[in-house]
Amino acid sequence: MAQSLPGRYLQYRLKEITGNGRIHSIRLFCQLPNLAPVFTNLRVVPVGMSQIVTEQGGPVALDYGAVFQQRNLDNFVEGPRPRAQVRRLANPGMLTAIWQAVDGNGDNLEFTVEMRRQDGPGGEWITLATELREPFFSFNSRGMPEGLYRVRVTASDIPDNDPEIALSTTRVSEPFLIDVTPPEIVVNNLQVSGNSLRVDFTAVDQWSVLAAAGYSLNGGRTVMLRPVRGLFDSRQLDFSIQLDDLPAGSHTLLIEVMDESGHIISFPQTFAIE
Going from the N-terminus, what domains does the chain have, and what CATH number goes with each? Predict the structure, then answer.
């Protein structure tokens, strides 16, 4: 058996055969070294996913060249081609680790998913799933301590290799935030002067940057607010509301603030104009 370095071509030489010998065919066999899987992408997204398999329309066409090259023609039986897709789940608090991994030998892969907290206690890797065949895994973050986490995915080609030669590769995600608490609103000033109202308040979130704010008066349309300094760029921002020419009587002001994780706090405040 010849040992050769990886390359694109194999060259061989046929020596002259004396007498009446004839060569009818030449067959060459090779064994490629096992290659470790390679990750091309890994993300954690704030949605739950499930896999559905549908039948792609149309039969599989036969390739004449493949018929001559392959010994097992069962691979070319006509039939519908299954197509794997994912759909979003409506469950709140779900997160999904999703990745792309390829194998240079075309081996089937199986995956192990682990997670650990990056900040605070609980820094050990915790196994979430093993022997996965689909390139994603959804899990519920409700009940988990708030903070920054990472997911680690290990891809192994053991489904198509003996354990002695099977190879694996690990990829760690960027940090992602588990945040289940809405922002807080602190009213610093609420002043009624004649038929005008002035409200100054501070919105604070422990983990996420604030993303939007607004108010509605007496159940009317929502008026969007900008922070005093103009940008939603912090976990603590100041806001001001100035309402003029209000009619006499009792009024209700509803203030709402949302953080980047989508959590909303509603803060109602009643006041009277004399």
Answer: 38-59+80-178 (2.60.40.10), 184-273 (2.60.40.650)
